[in-house]
Amino acid sequence: MDITKSLGFIEKRIRKKQGLSLENVSKDLKISKGNLSEIENGRRPLNEALFRQFVERYKINFDFDLGLLNEIEQLLQELMEAYTYKNFEKERQITRNYNLERDKYEYSFGCLYLPFLDVFLTNEKQPNQLSVDEYNAFSEVLEYFPAYVPDEKALFLYIKAFTARKNGDLKKALSDHLKAIETLNGKKWPQLEGIIKMNYAIEIAASQSFFAAYLIGQEAQEIFSKYENYVRSLMCSFNQANYLICLQEYAEVKDILNRVLLSQKLFTGYDFHKLAVSIMILALVMEEEFEQAIQFSKEYPIDDEERYIGNRSLLPYCYYRLGELDQCLLSMAELSQEALTRDDKAFHSILKAILEKDKVGVEAAKQKMIRICCKQLNWAMLMIMYQLLICYYKAENEKDLLIDAYECKDKVCRHILPVDCERSLPGSLD
Question: Domain check: are 189 and 176 in the same one?
C-alpha cells in the first residue's frame, strides 16, 4: 500500500470512527469542504503535514510507526498463503493472532487493512452467520478501494462473488468473479488467478456451459501445477471430473479419479479419497455401469467415524436397475438413517413409488425432485432422474411420458432446465 496515496482514506476512516463531521474538520484544518471531500475519496493527495495537524488537533493517539503497516501486510500475506495452499491449521492460528492484536492497528498506517482482513475472514462463514460489523466491512473496503493494489482489489471482488454465490445470487457471483479476473495483475499473489477461475468455472458450469467450465477449470489447474500447489490442483481435478460427467466423457473421468486415488497417501488435512470415491460412483451410475458402481463402493467402504455418504445414496437405484428389488429396499432403509440431501430424499421417493407401483406417487415425487434440482442447478441428478424414469416408463409402456422424459433429458444435457426455478448452487470444491 502506498501511504502517500492513502493518507486521505486513513484520515477519513479515523474521522468517521471519532464521529467527526466533514464540515467541522474542514473548518478546523482551514481547507474547503469540497477539497477535503476529494482528498477523502482519493481524488487529491493529503500531505503528511496536514495529516499530522488533523491528528494533533483532535488528540488522536496515532502510531506513526511504519513497522505496523509492514506487520499487518505480512499478516495478510501469510493468511493468503495459508488459504492458497488450504493450510487450515495455519489459517486458524493467524486468525487467532489477528483477533488478539487487531486493536493495535486501529490508529496506524495499517488501519485500512482492518476491514479488508475482516472481509477475508468471512470467507469460511455462511451469510446468516455474519455480524452487522462484518457486513459493514464490505462497504468500508469499497470506500477505500483505490488504496489497495490490483491483486488486493481482485481478492476482495472474489470474496464478494463467493458470498453472493452462498446467498444464491448467481448473476452477482458471475459478475464479481469476472471483475476480479479483469482487475488482478498477479504481482502480489500469482495463484489468485487460479483460485478465482476455479470458482468462476463452478458458476459457468451451473448456469451456462459444462464445456466452457471445463476449459476455465483447465486454466486454473495449469496455474496451480506451475506453482506446485498439488492440493488446489487436485481440487480442480474433482471439479473437472464433475464437468466431464455432465459431458458424458466417462473414460477421462475415471482416469482423473484413479490418479487421485493412487496419490491419496500424499495428502493430509483434506479428504480427497472420499470425494474421489463419491464422484466415481456418480460416473459409473451415469454410464449405467451399475454392477461396477456397487462393487466399487464395497472396495471403498464408508468411514464409520465420518459417515460421509455422498453419491452412495445412488446405490439403491443400482440394485433396482439390476433387478435386485429386495436389496434396493434394504439399501434405502439403511440410508434413511443417514443425513441425506434433499435431492437424494426426493430421488428415493421416486424409487419407493415405483416399487410400490404407485404411478401417481411417481409423478408427484418427480415434480418435487425437479423443483429441488432446478433450484440447486443440480444437472447431474436431473440426468440420473430422467435415466431412471426412462427405464420405468419403458417397462410400464407409458409412451407419452417416455417421450417427455427423453426430451427433458436431452434438454438437461444441453444445459436447459426442464422448468424455470429460483436457483441456488449445489456444492463444489472452491
Answer: yes
